[in-house]
Structures are given as structure tokens and as C-alpha cells.
Amino acid sequence: MAANTPPPILQALLLCDTTIREAGTNKLSFIGIFNDIVSHQFPTVHPAFSVCVILSDGHGNIKCRLRMLCMENNKELFTLQQDFQFNDPRENSELIFQIKQLPIPTPGTYCIEFFAGQELLGSRKLRVNQAKQGNT
Questions:
Q1: Under a CB-based contact definition with an 8 Å cutoff, are residues 49 and 36 in contact?
Q2: CA–CA separation, 37 vs 101, rounded Å?
Q3: What integer pLDDT is reported at residue 88 of this predicted model?
Q4: pLDDT tens across 1-35, in order?
Q5: Domains in the chain with CATH codes
Q6: How many Å apart are CA 5 and CA 2, to the nearest integer?
Q7: Among candidates 33, 57, 36, which has minimal Cα distance to 116?
Q8: Burial of residue 47 (number of CB atoms within 10 Å: 0-12, 13-18, 19+)
Q9: Is the pLDDT of residue 135 over 70?
Q10: How far apart are CA 57 and CA 94, in angstroms?
């Protein structure tokens, strides 16, 4: 991002089980949007999910970064980086990050943050809970 170029605007930051892009229309479907993860034991490994980022008003090529932190100890669980080319700032642009085999050490509150260049554009909390006895 050039020094005098404003950062893109974060329109949405969604967590879901998977995304599907429809052939022909190019529309995205977000399957299984969630805010919580539940596990019977810890540490655990969450098999897979998608983080969907929707941006507008972007210009040129931007280095994007997605990371996840434990809010209790500020420990980073992952960081993913991706260069993204904005073709038209008037259009919304989607970035889909695939997270696979995510180790989660403990129940608690986690934060997923999205950066464009060095600027934090937004974040969202993810609650990770211990399953109660008898729940599936």
C-alpha cells in the first residue's frame, strides 16, 4: 500500500465451515457460519474452517495478513499472509483463508485479526468452550 493511499474498508469478517463459489454467477455461499467452537477435550485440533474477508475501496496490490491470538496470554496460534490485487475500488473483493488442522491448546476467548499492510482493519472474537458432560 502506498503511503498516501487509504487502506481498504473491511465490510465483513466471517468464520464458517466452508465456502462454495457458484459456477456461472461467481456468487459465494457461506456454509455453517459460527462464533463458537466446542470440544470435549483439550488440547484439541479443529479440522478445518474458512475465514471470509470482504473488502471495498482497495487500490492496487496490498499485502494482507490474518492472524489468531489467544486473548488470555496474547499467544499467536497462526498467521497467514496473502498478496491481493484490487482491480476496481468500487467493487467488493473477497479473500478466503482456509484454516486446516488448527491446534487449540485451551478453552477461552481467541481473536482473529485482519491487516492490510501494517494497518489493523478489523477483528472478531471466537469463543472456544469445553463441552458439558453428555453434550455432543
A1: no
A2: 14
A3: 86
A4: 556 788 999 999 999 999 999 999 989 999 999 99
A5: 9-130 (2.60.40.2550)
A6: 5
A7: 57
A8: exposed
A9: no
A10: 12
Distance of CA 136 to the CA centre of its chain: 26
One-letter identity of residue 50: S
Burial class (CB in 10 A: 0-12, 13-18, 19+), 122: middle
Instruction: Tell the burial category of 68 from Cβ atoms under 10 Å away from its Cβ (0-12, 13-18, 19+).
Output: buried
Q: Which long-range contacts link 65-68 to residues 24+ away (Cβ below 8 Å)?
A: 65/114, 65/115, 66/97, 66/112, 66/113, 66/114, 66/115, 67/112, 67/113, 67/115, 68/102, 68/110, 68/111, 68/112, 68/113, 68/126
pTM above 0.85, yes or no: yes
pLDDT tens digits, residue range 82-109?
999 998 888 899 999 999 999 999 999 9
C-alpha cell at 117: 499492510
| Dihedral sign computed on CA atoms, order 21, 27, 31, 36 | positive
What is the DSSP code (8-state) at residue 133? T
> Cα–Cα distance between 126 and 39 in angstroms, integer?
13
